[in-house]
Structures are given as C-alpha cells and as structure tokens.
C-alpha cells in the first residue's frame, strides 16, 4: 500500500514539473523510484519507460520487461498521475513570471543532480 501512495506522489510530482518546466517525466521518475521506492537503476528506468511508453519508449520498455525490470502497477499509477499533474503544472506555469520559472527549473535540476551524485 505504501508503494501505491508513493507512485501517486511520484506521478503527480512528475506531471506537475513536466507541465511547469517542460521536462520529461523520466528526470523525476527514475530518481524518485530509486530513492523513494528502493528500485534498482534498471527497474526504475524500465518502469519510467512504461510510463512514457506510447510512442517514445515501446522498444526499450519491451527489453526491460523481458528482463523483469518493470513494475507494471507502478507504471500505470504513475502514468495516470503524470496526466493529472501535467495539467496542474501547465496551469501554474502560465501565471508565473518566466524569470521565476527559469530559476525554479535551475534549482530543481541542481537538487536532483546533487542527490544522485552524493548518494548511493
């Protein structure tokens, strides 16, 4: 049950940040699955491809799936939440100044980079 809640949060966050900053969900989803759900790097990447499946990741998803590196339930839940979150994020982006949006994106990328660089 706790993973389902995490999947919902990850999906909403990925969607909001995608809508807000125009970034791909994998930038958020992969690190979140690794650090919040204890997924391996491969399972996080495979599940992220499941979320972004049509049409971007179909061949990659199939390869990860064949090797057992996809969480289908997580992929579906996160995908649904990305849809909702991207709507919310895009609405927020329309009312924020471009300068604040640019700085927010830069800070987010620095935070994710530092987390991935200095943790296992």
TrEMBL record:
It comes from the Bacteria. It is a multi-pass membrane protein. Keywords: Cell membrane, Membrane, Transmembrane, Transmembrane helix. The chain crosses the membrane at residues 6-37, 49-66, 72-88. GO terms for cellular component: plasma membrane. Belongs to the 4-toluene sulfonate uptake permease (TSUP) (TC 2.A.102) family. The keyword Nucleotide-binding does not apply. It is found in: Cell membrane; Membrane. The keyword Ligase does not apply. This is Probable membrane transporter protein. InterPro entries: TM_pro_TauE-like (IPR002781), TSUP/Inactive_protease-like (IPR051598). Pfam families: TauE.
């Amino acid at each position: 049950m706790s993973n389902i809640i995490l999947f919902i949060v990850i999906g909403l966050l990925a969607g909001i940040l995608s809508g807000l900053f125009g970034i791909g969900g994998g930038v958020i989803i992969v690190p979140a699955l690794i650090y919040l759900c204890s997924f391996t790097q491969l399972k996080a990447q495979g599940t992220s491809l499941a979320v972004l499946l049509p049409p971007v990741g179909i061949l990659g998803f199939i390869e990860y799936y064949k090797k057992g590196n996809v969480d289908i339930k997580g992929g579906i839940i996160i995908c649904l939440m990305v849809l909702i979150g991207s709507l919310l994020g895009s609405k927020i982006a329309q009312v924020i100044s471009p300068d604040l949006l640019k700085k927010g994106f830069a800070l987010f990328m620095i935070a994710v980079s530092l987390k991935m660089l200095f943790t296992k």
